[in-house]
Design a protein that fits this description.
Blueprint: E1 7-10, H1 16-26, E2 38-44, E3 47-57, E4 60-67, H2 77-91, E5 96-100, H3 106-111, E6 115-117, E7 120-124
Parallel strand pairs: 4-5
Antiparallel strand pairs: 1-2, 2-3, 3-4, 5-7, 6-7
């Protein structure tokens, strides 16, 4: 996969089966709410390899899930999904991205510039 370009696009209902297969391969269960979520799918070589889901809350976009299979982690895929989510949030008028502070990936988000405030991890969209 090295040297290939990641393409990011909006998630749609037809993605659920592929995303479910990603989870089975990694032995991590998929959350059922992914089926109805707003989000992005990352694709390499024509295959879906990662995703990010969110919900919109007043002035913020709250990230509910980011998933990159273990064998593709540390390649910048999650960072690219976050960057695209920040652009979409800003274009939609959201002033910040939020993540629940007690999520398993809190340290990951902190390394990407999210700071603790109001019981969440927050990062300005611009």
């Amino acid at each position: 996969m090295k040297g290939q370009r990641l393409f990011v696009r909006a998630m749609d209902a037809s993605d659920f089966g592929t995303l479910e297969a990603l989870h089975s391969a990694s032995e991590e269960p998929i959350e059922e709410d992914v089926r109805a979520a707003n989000g992005l799918v990352g694709r390499l070589a024509g295959s879906s390899v990662a995703y990010l889901t969110w919900r919109r809350d007043r002035d913020a976009m709250t990230i509910s899930r980011i998933f990159v299979p273990p064998d593709l982690r540390r390649l910048g895929i999650g960072r690219m999904l976050l960057a695209e989510a920040a652009t979409i949030a800003a274009d939609a008028g959201a002033t910040e991205l939020r993540v629940e502070q007690d999520c398993k990936l809190a340290r990951y988000f902190e390394r990407r510039g999210f700071v603790s405030a109001e019981g969440s991890l927050i990062k300005a969209t611009r």
